[in-house]
Design brief:
Layout (H helix, E strand, L loop, with lengths): L6 H8 L6 H16 L5 E7 L2 E7 L8 E8 L2 E8 L2 E6 L2 H5 L12
Antiparallel strand pairs: 1-2, 2-3, 3-4, 4-5
């Protein structure tokens, strides 16, 4: 006997993850600051089942310098910053994870 499946219900169960408008604003603000400083030149956004990743590149044809991921975890949503396969920082909010990129002021003397 054949069975009719509602594909919208199946897709909803998989739990695709996306960045919302506020998160994209934070990510693009950081990206534009680093582009202005000449450090980053390109970005990509990937969405998948249980994860969304904002990757930044020094050159378009290189590997990503950093990947900023939004991951569905057992406790809710988690944000992680990766350099290659190494997790550099994790936070419950995107702002916590992006603290890694805050520039520290240094004292310059003659």
């Amino acid at each position: 006997m054949s069975q009719v499946l509602d594909l919208s219900q199946i897709r909803r169960r998989r739990g695709r993850v996306y960045f919302n408008r506020g998160e994209l604003g934070q990510l693009l603000g950081l990206y534009f600051d680093r582009v202005a400083a000449g450090e980053w030149r390109d970005y990509a956004i990937d969405h998948g089942v249980g994860i969304a990743v904002f990757s930044v590149f020094r050159h378009s044809h290189d590997r990503p310098l950093y990947g900023i991921a939004k991951v569905l975890a057992a406790q809710g949503t988690e944000y992680c910053v990766y350099e290659g396969r190494h997790r550099l920082r994790r936070g419950h909010t995107l702002a916590e994870a992006l603290e890694l990129f805050e520039r520290k002021l240094t004292l310059v003397r003659d």
